[in-house]
């Protein structure tokens, strides 16, 4: 029997109003944080800007009716000698006309590589392997205790989530065809689990800025696999954004 003394502490956003837009300053600041590579600072910024996840959810064609963000919520208590507590970085839910779908997000530093080795001997890096095991442990627990997640944390229609690991940058896979193919194969073979780069989040926000007319350029061709379709106009826009904002402004966003 599952028991826990936990207060659900998560961010809810109202249903149906116009979703909060991403500003150019917010986007620029996230680029800076991702380039700097501090997982802690990235997490804090994403927690403070939950609407970023609304646009990330568009990758999965959901979230446009409503969405929920849960940050650093303990879902399984630590029991000495039995098991460690489980605290996912984020649990996010998106609602569309088909109902709710749920995702558990594990963050690793964008400076960490997904693979180590080369020359036909690439393998998951130690950090990536640990991240995969973590996100699958979260997913397994959420799947086993779906009722608890719905009742204790008031997560509507909660069901077994898709696990997503954010790690590394798109340029890694632009430089290595071998690793690009391995990543693609892993994602195709895995069931309800994905490995994405931080550029998948950045490109989702970039697409929102394009759609809203804040910036100009060509849209990312395939939002579902944005990190593999990250085009030169996106990189050029990132460079342009950096040039428009001072470090002083960044520190006040």
Q: How would you concisely characterize the structure shown here?
A:
It is globular, with a radius of gyration of 18 Å. Strand 3 (90-96) and strand 4 (99-107) form a beta hairpin.
Strands, helices and their partners?
Layout: E1 10-12, H1 24-36, H2 39-48, H3 51-57, E2 66-71, E3 90-96, E4 99-107, E5 115-116, E6 123-124, H4 126-144, H5 146-152, E7 162-166, H6 170-175, H7 177-189, E8 193-196, H8 198-211, H9 232-244, H10 247-250
Parallel strand pairs: 4-7, 7-8
Antiparallel strand pairs: 1-2, 2-3, 3-4, 5-6
Helix pairs in contact: 1-8, 3-8, 4-5
Attribute tags:
253 residues, alpha/beta, two-stranded antiparallel ribbon, 10 helices
Describe the structure.
The chain has helices at 24-36, 39-48, 51-57, 126-144, 146-152, 170-175, 177-189, 198-211, 232-244, 247-250; strands at residues 10-12, 66-71, 90-96, 99-107, 115-116, 123-124, 162-166, 193-196. The chain contains 10 helices and 8 strands. The protein is of the alpha/beta class and 253 residues long. 42% of the residues lie in helices and 15% in strands. The longest helix is centred in the middle third of the chain and has 19 residues, at 126-144. A hairpin with a 6-residue loop joins strand 5 and strand 6 (123-124). The strands form 2 sheets. Strands 1-2-3-4-7-8 form a 6-stranded mixed beta sheet. Helix 1 runs antiparallel to helix 8 (198-211), helix 3 (51-57) crosses helix 8 (198-211) and helix 4 (126-144) packs across helix 5.
């Amino acid at each position: 029997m599952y028991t826990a003394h936990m207060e659900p502490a998560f961010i809810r956003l109202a249903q149906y109003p116009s979703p909060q837009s991403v500003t150019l300053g917010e986007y620029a600041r996230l680029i800076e944080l991702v380039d700097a590579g501090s997982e802690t600072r990235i997490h804090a910024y994403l927690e403070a800007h939950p609407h970023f996840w609304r646009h990330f959810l568009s990758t999965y064609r959901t979230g446009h009716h409503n969405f929920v963000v849960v940050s650093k919520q303990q879902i399984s208590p630590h029991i000495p000698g039995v098991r460690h507590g489980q605290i996912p970085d984020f649990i996010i839910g998106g609602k569309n006309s088909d109902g709710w779908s749920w995702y558990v997000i594990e963050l690793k530093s964008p400076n960490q590589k997904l693979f180590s080795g080369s020359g036909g001997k690439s393998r998951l890096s130690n950090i990536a392997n640990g991240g995969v095991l973590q996100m699958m442990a979260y997913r397994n627990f959420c799947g086993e205790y779906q009722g608890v997640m719905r009742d204790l944390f008031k997560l509507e229609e909660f069901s077994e989530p898709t696990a997503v690991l954010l790690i590394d940058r798109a340029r890694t896979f632009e430089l290595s065809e071998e690793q690009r193919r391995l990543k693609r194969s892993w994602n195709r073979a895995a069931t309800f689990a994905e490995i994405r780069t931080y550029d998948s989040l950045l490109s989702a926000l970039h697409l929102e800025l394009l759609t809203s007319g804040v910036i100009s350029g060509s849209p990312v061709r395939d939002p579902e696999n944005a990190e593999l379709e990250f085009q030169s106009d996106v990189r050029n826009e990132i460079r342009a954004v950096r040039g428009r904002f001072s470090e002083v402004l960044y520190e006040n966003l």
